[in-house]
Amino acid sequence: MPRPALSRLALATLLTALPLAPVALAAESSAKLEKVASFDHQVTGVTVSESGRIFVNFPRWTEDSEVSVAELKPDGSLAPYPDPAWNGWRNAKRDELTPGNHWVCVQSVVADGRGSLWVIDPGAPAQALVVPGAPKLVKIDLASNQVSKVYALDESVAPQGSYLNDVRFSPDGRHAYITDSGARGALVVLDLESGKARRALDGDPSTQAEKGVKVKADGEPLMRPDGRGVEFSADGIALSPAGDYLYWQAVKGNTLYRIATAALQGDDLASLPAKVEKVGENGPADGLLMDPQGRLYVSAVEDHAVKIRENGQLTTLVQDKKLIWPDTFGRGPDGTVYVTDSRIPEMSFFDPKQKPALETVLYKIVPN
């Protein structure tokens, strides 16, 4: 039965105290997709700077891609970013190039709205072994197009089996919060002033792939030829507008979680599991994005859709069969939301007949 209407105060109290049950979705979507660009390689991340510059990245999953991070120019061309040298790594040249100052397997790019682009490199080509010295968070100054800081993330933070996935930044610019979607999921909290990083909720149920969940594509379990399914742990990440709550969920999972960022910044890691809150159930999802109004965009990977969670309600914003796997969101300075389609169900991991290089698309969401 439908719930009675609640005041915003009452609803906020309920959100904090109890997990929300799944709710009905809107019958019709209220937006449509418009293609921005297509790529010859598998795209995951997208971000838009405060001046409107668009950046994308291509992880080294099934191919040894020629470019890892690029700026998407207005004419649709890609410019290796910040320069060709950073994009010079090749799997075959790993003994010739140092991994600490080259892109090894970039998963995410995030513009912070304060003049910098940040790049997450988990350093694990094919989502397999971590290349020693490769995991890092890199800050690039957008005015000079030069790397201004490299935060090397050692084995205590990015051990073998890890796959650092996405990042959000505290409003004061002091902390970075990173998801690890690898075999043993976790959150990584990085103090950007001291450079100290640590794993939080390492192995906690909230950061793991949920047992019993099978991610589906067009209604059928998505499986590799060897019988393995989708196993991504803590992946999508979002920060509340005030920066007081961090949200995340596993791709192989239904549940959205959150925790107060003040707890993550504290020293008592042992007490964190008791402070995790269940917000509700989204179903399997990849990317998350929270806008300034507190609306959470959810990539509904099983439904070819983008959904919005607002005031405890989960509704469909846009649904289109051509959106094979909505992956990552970016929000432009004018409020336009962009989404990459990484086509994960069609990659050679799951369909050996596919060629290694997978053509993918960047969309923007526009009113219907």
UniProtKB/TrEMBL annotation:
<dbReference type="InterPro" id="IPR001766">
    <property type="entry name" value="Fork_head_dom"/>
</dbReference>
<dbReference type="Pfam" id="PF03022">
    <property type="entry name" value="MRJP"/>
</dbReference>
<keyword id="KW-0238">DNA-binding</keyword>
<feature type="domain" description="Fork-head">
    <location>
        <begin position="54"/>
        <end position="124"/>
    </location>
</feature>
<dbReference type="GO" id="GO:0003700">
    <property type="term" value="F:DNA-binding transcription factor activity"/>
</dbReference>
<dbReference type="InterPro" id="IPR017996">
    <property type="entry name" value="MRJP/yellow-related"/>
</dbReference>
<protein>
    <submittedName>
        <fullName>Major royal jelly protein</fullName>
    </submittedName>
</protein>
<keyword id="KW-0964">Secreted</keyword>
<keyword id="KW-0732">Signal</keyword>
<feature type="signal peptide">
    <location>
        <begin position="1"/>
        <end position="26"/>
    </location>
</feature>
<dbReference type="GO" id="GO:0043565">
    <property type="term" value="F:sequence-specific DNA binding"/>
</dbReference>
<dbReference type="InterPro" id="IPR011042">
    <property type="entry name" value="6-blade_b-propeller_TolB-like"/>
</dbReference>
<dbReference type="GO" id="GO:0005576">
    <property type="term" value="C:extracellular region"/>
</dbReference>
